[in-house]
Design brief:
Blueprint lengths: L5 E4 L1 H9 L2 E8 L2 H4 L6 H7 L3 E8 L14 E4 L5 H15 L4 H4 L2 E3 L29 H11 L3 E5 L2 H4 L18 E4 L5 E3 L9 E3 L3 E5 L3 H15 L27 E4 L6 H5 L1 H11 L7
Parallel strand pairs: 4-5, 4-6
Antiparallel strand pairs: 1-10, 2-10, 2-11, 3-6, 3-7, 3-9, 7-8
Helix pairs in contact: 4-10
InterPro entries: Transferrin-like_dom, Transferrin_Fe_BS
Keywords: Ion transport, Iron, Iron transport, Metal-binding, Repeat, Secreted, Transport
Organism: Myodes glareolus
Length: 293
C-alpha cells in the first residue's frame, strides 16, 4: 500500500512479498569477515546466497528423539511461512507424509500464525496467543528456542540461535543459566550431533534475510540504507547513539546478528535471490498454508 518504504524479511516472507510485487534491494550478512569484501552486484549476491543453516534443536537430556520419530512430539516454530521455523522442516515432513495435517503429526506445539484453535497453538503464550508477531512470547528464533526450553521437545530455528541464548549471552531469567552442551541437533539421517557441528547436521540452507521495497523506490532505499549503515552500523557506540543492528527488542529492524548490509544487483528478481530450489519448496508448502491473520 506504500505506507512504508522498506522492510527486512526472512525468505518465506520474501517469497510472499515477491508475489505482491516487491523486489529485493539489500541482503543482511552475518559474517563480519565478509563485510570487508563489500563490493557490488554479483560478488555480494554470491556471498549472501551462501545463507544460513536451518536446524532442528532438542534437549541433550531427551535422548530418545530423532528426526525419524518426531510424530507425537511437541514442536516449537518461529512462525508459519517463515523459513527455518516452518517452510524447511514442514516441507521435509510433507515430502515424507504427503499430508498437510501438521497439527495431527505433532501432539502439541507453538507455530505463531497457525489456526488459533489448533494443537499447534496449544503451547503458545502472551497477550496475543499464537499471533505471528512479538506479542506472542514464543515468536521468532529466540521465542521458538524458549518454547523448547520451557515446554517443547524440538525447536526449528537458525543454527546461530542456540549460541546466542546460552553461556550467559542472553541475560533473561529463562536463558541465563543455559549451556551449549544442554542441546543437540537432529540430523536428517536419524543421528544427533552437538550444536557446534551444524555444518554437517542441518535440514537445509536458507537464504539470508533481505530488505524488500517497491520497485520504484528500490534505488532510494538502497542509498539511504548504505548511508545509515556508514553512520550507525556495527562500528557505532550503541550505549550513546542509535544502532542499526542492535535493539532492546529481539531482531527489531534486522536480525541482531547482522554485521552489514549488502547491496544486491539492480533489477534482481526475488526468484533469483531465493533460488530455484527454495522457491519450488515454498511453492509446494503454500499448498499447505494455514496462516491466519
Amino acid at each position: 500500500n506504500g505506507e512504508a518504504d522498506a522492510m527486512s524479511l526472512d525468505g518465506g516472507y520474501a517469497y510472499i512479498a515477491g508475489q505482491c510485487g516487491l523486489v529485493p534491494v539489500m541482503a543482511e550478512n552475518y559474517d563480519s569477515s565478509d563485510c570487508g569484501r563489500l563490493g557490488q552486484g554479483e560478488l555480494n549476491l554470491a556471498i549472501t546466497l551462501e545463507g544460513y543453516y536451518a536446524v532442528a534443536v532438542v534437549k541433550a537430556s531427551n535422548r530418545d528423539i530423532t528426526w525419524e520419530n518426531l510424530k507425537g512430539k511437541k514442536s516449537c516454530h518461529t512462525a508459519v511461512d517463515r523459513t527455518a521455523g516452518w517452510n524447511i522442516p514442514m516441507g521435509l515432513l510433507y515430502s515424507r507424509t504427503k499430508s498437510c495435517k501438521f497439527d495431527e503429526y505433532f501432539s502439541q506445539g507453538c507455530a505463531p500464525g497457525y489456526e488459533k484453535n489448533s494443537t499447534l497453538c496449544d503451547l503458545c503464550m502472551g497477550p496475543n496467543k499464537c499471533a505471528p508477531n512479538n506479542r506472542e512470547g514464543y515468536f521468532g528464533y529466540t521465542g521458538a528456542f524458549r518454547c523448547l526450553v520451557e515446554k517443547g521437545d524440538v525447536a526449528f530455528v537458525k543454527h546461530q540461535t542456540v549460541f546466542q541464548n546460552t553461556e550467559g549471552r542472553n541475560p533473561d531469567a529463562w536463558a541465563k543459566d543455559l549451556q551449549l552442551k544442554d542441546f543437540e541437533l537432529l540430523c536428517p539421517d536419524g543421528s544427533r550431533k552437538p550444536v557446534t557441528q551444524y555444518a554437517s547436521c542441518y535440514l537445509a540452507q536458507a537464504p539470508n534475510h533481505v530488505v524488500v521495497s517497491r520497485r520504484e523506490k528500490a534505488a532510494r532505499v538502497s542509498m539511504v540504507l548504505l548511508n545509515q549503515q556508514t553512520a550507525f552500523g556495527s562500528n557505532a557506540d550503541c550505549s550513546t547513539t542509535f544502532c542499526l543492528f542492535s535493539s532492546d527488542t529481539k531482531d527489531l529492524l534486522f536480525r541482531d546478528d547482522t554485521k552489514c548490509l549488502f547491496k544486491l544487483p539492480d533489477g534482481i528478481t526475488w526468484e533469483k535471490y531465493l533460488g530455484e530450489g527454495y522457491v519450488q519448496a515454498v511453492g509446494n508448502m503454500r499448498k499447505c498454508s494455514t496462516s491466519r491473520e
